[in-house]
Amino acid sequence: MSDADALKREAAARALEYVRSGMKLGLGTGSTAKHFVDLLAKRVEEGLEVVGVPTSEATRVQAESLGVPLGTLDEHPVLDLCIDGADEVGPDLSLIKGGGGALLREKIVASASRQMIVIADASKKVERLGAFPLPIEVVDFGVAAIRRGIDRAARAAGCEGLLTLRRRADGHVFVTDQGHLILDAAYHSIADPQALAAQLSSVPGVVEHGLFINLASRVILAGAGGVTVIDRA
Ligand SMILES: O=C[C@H](O)[C@H](O)[C@H](O)COP(=O)(O)O
């Protein structure tokens, strides 16, 4: 296991301390959330009773293969706790998510959860969001027009940057679990995430964006010096 991976697992292990028997859990997506699901499965084997609602097909397949009981948001519209990774964590615990393309289901699940705990290695903590390209999920219709709409909206929030259509490693266009496309926006530095979020949400054809504001209640960061837990003020 690489050093970064060991830190991700450490953060995931700490998050498990907040899980109680009987809880309905949102299960995040990505390499850090994968560690959490793995550790959770071991606790389930030992008798912990939980129901997980996965935020992606990848997480569903992993959790299912490890024997974690799963349900849907239709069966459980309110979840006790959602545990997920992040691509960037800002000072007020606002986040950029969607590096793995799961932002839409992740945001729906996080919004349906009483609490969201973000787990990450300490390198994800930033002074200002935006160095990580912001994923924007769009419908597969009129993408050139949607791009123009996004550019206009972003400028109104003080952001400008190249939009890149996400592709898979094999060169094919990346399609999300919901059948949409992703434009990765290189804004570099987002001065007002709330304003940008509102602007992007107003563009027809934008399904969701990777700015998660006022959703994370707690962030667990694992770094060389140990684990830090930060609660939203
Ligand atoms: O779409 C993917 C998610 O938002 C991930 O939680 C995020 O990209 C962080 O992933 P990782 O834990 O692999 O860095």
Automatic annotation (TrEMBL):
Substrate binds at residues 29-32, 84-87, 97-100, 124. Pfam families: Rib_5-P_isom_A. GO terms for molecular function: ribose-5-phosphate isomerase activity. Pathway: Carbohydrate degradation; pentose phosphate pathway; D-ribose 5-phosphate from D-ribulose 5-phosphate (non-oxidative stage): step 1/1. Its EC number is 5.3.1.6. The keyword Isomerase applies. It comes from the Bacteria. It is an enzyme of class 5 (isomerase). The keyword Isomerase applies. It catalyses: aldehydo-D-ribose 5-phosphate = D-ribulose 5-phosphate. InterPro entries: NagB/RpiA_transferase-like, Ribose-5P_isomerase, Ribose5P_isomerase_typA_subgr, Ribose5P_isomerase_type_A. The active site is at 106 (proton acceptor). Keywords: Isomerase. Belongs to the ribose 5-phosphate isomerase family. Homodimer. Catalyzes the reversible conversion of ribose-5-phosphate to ribulose 5-phosphate. This is Ribose-5-phosphate isomerase A.
